[in-house]
Design a protein that fits this description.
Strand content: under 5%
Radius of gyration: 70 Å
Keywords: Coiled coil
Helix content: over 70%
Largest sheet: 2 strands, parallel
InterPro entries: Growth_transcription_reg, TMF_TATA-bd
Pfam families: TMF_TATA_bd
Number of domains: 3
Shape: elongated
Organism: Trichostrongylus colubriformis
Distance between the termini: 136 Å
Structural class: mainly alpha
Number of helices: 16
Strand order of the largest sheet: 1-2
Protein name: Myosin heavy chain
Number of strands: 4
Length: 765
């Protein structure tokens, strides 16, 4: 029996299975670009529900696509023998140099490894039963390997024309059916291909070594040599393919392990993401609560803004008072410096006046001595008596002027004493004392200027008198004897002048007392100025503290203003939306009101018509009773009533028209009785219909009233919203104005503070 076709078919089946496995595990250059996108696109259900690990089954199931029988099922049976006899379709994915170079090397090689003592092949001289058992064992092993690999092979042989198309289409179908491998397997496949090629070659050599002829005895008893060689070739190829498949299975198992580890990592990552999601939800809830708290705080701050505005106004008034105090302080300093200068000048003038008075006294004594000595020389001076009389008259005039000036000075001194007494008796406040001190200092300055002018006049007069006295002395020395008798009135005048000098000395002493009192007042004013300085410094410190507080409040108010602006924007958007909704609702209500008004007008018109109909029916009933109407007029009245009902099918009424049955009295005659019964039934039906319409109209009126009430409520709410919006806008404008005023105040205070510092530095320098 020739089994070459079976061996050839098994070879082709194993080759195609190996080609399919290689095509699954192989990476083409054009597929490397798509590997990143495929590896990144991992479905979410695999992340949540991990895939079943391949290590549990430790099997690789590669199914070949079924070929439809309608396409190429007719030529398979005819092409079977031709393929087995003529063509040898050998598809090998990996080159094998031992098999390719020496195809019949198995006949010359040993059946088993030289190091092994036994052989796995058929030993020569064995019985046919052992040979058949050996073949059955080999077939069972190949079947087990086939089962473990799960290679589904279609045993039908294609036609020669379809072999090429099948070989090309299988790869396309496998690419379409088989899912894309993960990125880890694709990355490791380049490295694994080189290992598998080398390992497959080594395994082939080992298998050939294991099936070598040297360790086995040729079974020439029952089998021919060409059958054994073909069988050895097929078993070797089977072994090589199975080893290669086993190695690929191990590689796939390793890739599966990596995928499992990646799956565990992804599950951990999913858990972390879920935890982050829950934490983010908690944070969002916290943020929402914070936003609500901030909104509540914004409302509270808006309520508190009125109090802050009042406090700002109070601070403004205090700042104005501080500025006034600073201005008064500057003015008092200037007045103090002026008063000190005037006091120094007065002291100098008083000292000069005292010296002049002493000089005048000494000169007067000398004059007395000279007059006593020149009493004898008065005779000579008689000639010059007229001239001396003239001079005496001039001197008398000057003395009268001096007396007048002295009187004026005494009056001024009296005024000063009165003012000093008033200043000592009355307790002045700080501001009034400063103003009065300013006035007194101004008056003192004017008086001092007048006194200076008067002193200058006196000096000029004294110089004139000295010159004249010198002339007079010279003349009197010559005529001392002649004027001894005429000197008696002059002596009296001199005594008078002495008295006047004593008076002037008393007045000067009084002026000294006044100046001392003024000095005391100046000391008091200085003490008050020192106190005011201390108060000013304390107020400046307090002002600085208030400035810091105000700055903090301004910053806080600016933040509140920003929040208020945000709340304003949100409120404006909400208000606009509410306005739009209210406008739409108002339009709808107006339309409904118009429709209801039209319905009411139509119902009222129909009510009038029904009243007219009812009156006509009553009149017809009365006529029928009075005249005992025949059936024909009854039919006419029925027709008229039916026409009226047809013309007014939807008439309504608001009042109840209940007709009593006692009004319709039964007639004795049969025809009128039937006519009245018909009219009575029709009137009853009409009345019931009118009652129903009246009820419906009353219900519609109630609905209209309710709608009007709702419309009023909506209008009130709308007006309230408008008022609230206006108040909010006014409040925001007030806050903005307050912030602008605070900024201006801060600028002015800083400028004033800088100027005060500059002035203090200048004073200290």
């Amino acid at each position: 029996m020739n089994l070459s076709w079976a061996n050839q078919f098994a070879k082709t089946a194993l080759k195609t299975a190996q080609q399919k496995i290689d095509s699954v595990l192989d990476i083409r250059p054009d597929e490397e670009e798509a590997a990143g996108s495929v590896s990144d696109v991992i479905p979410e259900d695999l992340l949540v529900n991990p895939a079943v690990p391949l290590g549990a089954t430790e099997e690789v199931n590669v199914t070949a696509l079924p070929v439809p029988s309608s396409v190429n099922g007719e030529g398979w049976s005819n092409a079977w023998n031709s393929v087995s006899a003529d063509q040898e379709l050998v598809v090998d994915s990996e080159p094998n140099p031992i098999r390719d170079e020496c195809p019949q090397a198995s006949a010359s090689l040993f059946d088993h490894s030289p190091s092994s003592n036994s052989s796995d092949g058929i030993e020569p001289g064995q019985s046919p039963q052992k040979v058949s058992d050996y073949e059955e064992n080999k077939r069972a092993e190949t079947a087990d390997v086939d089962k473990s690999v799960y290679v589904d092979v279609d045993l039908s042989v294609p036609s020669p024309e379809e072999t090429q198309f099948a070989s090309s289409s299988e790869t396309i179908q496998e690419e379409n059916v088989l899912p894309p491998l993960p990125d880890i397997v694709r990355r490791n496949s380049h490295q694994d291909d080189s290992i598998t090629v080398a390992s497959s070659d080594i395994e082939v050599i080992r298998n050939v070594d294991a099936w070598s002829i040297a360790s086995s005895k040729p079974a020439t008893d029952n089998m021919p040599s060409h059958v054994l060689t073909s069988k050895h070739d097929t078993t070797e190829s089977f072994r090589a393919q199975l080893l290669h498949a086993e190695q690929r299975r191990n590689e796939l198992k390793a890739a599966n392990d990596t995928l499992q580890s990646n799956n565990v990592q992804l599950q951990q990552r999913i858990i972390l993401l879920n935890q982050q999601h829950s934490s983010l939800k908690k944070e969002l809830e916290g943020k929402k609560t914070e936003l609500e708290d901030l909104l509540a705080e914004g409302k509270r701050l808006s309520d508190h803004s009125g109090k802050q505005a009042r406090e700002i106004r109070r601070l403004k008034s205090e700042l104005a008072e501080l500025e006034k105090v600073k201005a008064e302080r500057k003015r008092l300093k200037e007045e103090k410096s002026r008063a000190e200068e005037t006091i120094d000048l007065q002291k100098e003038e008083i000292a000069s006046l005292k010296g002049m008075i002493k000089q005048l006294e000494s000169s007067a004594e000398q004059l007395l001595k000279e007059q006593s000595m020149r009493a004898a020389s008065t005779e000579v001076a008689q000639k010059h008596a007229l001239e001396q009389n003239k001079l005496v008259a001039e001197l008398e005039r000057e003395l009268s002027e001096a007396r007048k000036q002295i009187d004026e000075l005494s009056d001024c001194n009296k005024k000063l004493t009165r003012e000093a007494e008033l200043m000592q008796s009355v307790s002045w406040s700080e501001r009034l004392a400063g103003e009065r001190a300013n006035e007194t200092v101004a008056t003192i300055n004017t008086e001092l200027l007048e006194a200076r002018a008067h002193i200058e006049r006196l000096r000029s007069q004294l110089q004139c008198t000295e010159s004249r006295l010198e002339v007079v002395l010279n003349e009197r020395n010559s005529v001392a004897e002649s004027i001894s008798q005429s000197n008696i009135p002059l002596l009296e005048e001199i005594n008078n002048l002495k008295q006047l000098l004593h008076r002037e000395q008393g007045a000067n002493e009084e002026s000294d007392i006044k100046t001392r009192a003024l000095k005391r007042e100046l000391d008091v004013v200085r003490e008050q100025l020192d106190k005011l300085k201390e108060i000013n410094e304390s107020m400046v410190m307090h002002h600085h503290q208030e400035l810091t507080v105000v700055n903090q409040k301004v910053q806080h108010l600016e933040r509140e203003l920003v929040l208020v602006h945000e709340a304003k924007d949100s409120a404006m958007t909400e208000h606009k939306a509410a306005r739009a909704v209210d406008a739409v609702a108002l339009e709808n209500l107006r339309e409904e009101n118009a429709v209801l008004a039209n319905d009411l007008s139509s119902l009222r018109n129909s009510l009038k018509v029904l009243k007219d109909d009812n009156d006509a029916l009553k009149a017809s009933l009365e006529d029928a009773r009075a005249h005992q109407v025949v059936p024909q007029p009854v039919e006419k009245s029925c027709k008229i009533q039916a026409q009226k009902e047809a013309t007014h099918p939807g008439s309504n009424s608001f009042d109840e028209y209940a007709m009593s049955t006692s009004q319709v009295a039964p007639f004795s005659l049969a025809p009128p009785q039937s006519a009245t019964a018909v009219l009575h039934d029709m009137s009853l039906k009409r009345i019931s219909f009118l009652e129903q319409e009246a009820l419906r109209c009353s219900q519609l009126e109630d609905q209209v009233r309710q709608l009007k009430k709702e419309l009023k409520v909506l209008n009130q709410q709308y007006n309230g919203l408008l008022v609230v919006d206006g108040e909010r806008l006014e409040r925001i404008e007030e806050l903005e104005n307050d912030v602008i005023d605070l900024r201006q105040l801060l600028k002015e205070q800083l400028l004033a503070f800088a100027e005060a510092r500059m002035t203090e530095n200048k004073e200290t320098s």
